[in-house]
Design brief:
The protein has 2 helices and 2 strands, in the order ββαα. By secondary structure, the chain is of the alpha+beta class. It has one domain. Strands 1-2 form a two-stranded antiparallel sheet. The longest helix has 13 residues. It is extended, with a radius of gyration of 20 Å. It starts with 18 loop residues before the first strand and ends in a 5-residue tail after the last helix.
C-alpha cells in the first residue's frame, strides 16, 4: 500500500499590512510595496480608466534609485534615441 503524503496547511503567507500615517500637511497616506500597486496601475493605464485623472496632481514619494532608473528609461525610450 503506498504511503500517503500529507501536507500541513498553515494559512496564507504572512504579508505586511499597509502602513497608515499622516504626511506633513496632515493628510492620510499609506505606505505599500511598489510591487503591490504597479500591476494595478499598469492595468488601469492600459485600460484607460478615467478615474486615474482624479489623481494626476497627487504627489508620490519614491526612492532616489527608482527615480534615476525612470529618468534613464525615459531618456532611452525617446523615439529619437
Amino acid at each position: 500500500m503506498p504511503h500517503s503524503h500529507l501536507k500541513l496547511y498553515c494559512g496564507p503567507a504572512e504579508t505586511h499590512a499597509p502602513t497608515l500615517s499622516k504626511n506633513e500637511s496632515g493628510q492620510n497616506c499609506v505606505t505599500v510595496a511598489a510591487g503591490e500597486i504597479l500591476p494595478l496601475l499598469a492595468d488601469a493605464v492600459n485600460s484607460r480608466r478615467t478615474w486615474l485623472s482624479d489623481f494626476e496632481d497627487d504627489e508620490i514619494t519614491i526612492s532616489s534609485d527608482l527615480y534615476e532608473v525612470l529618468l534613464a528609461y525615459q531618456y532611452f525610450n525617446r523615439p529619437s534615441a
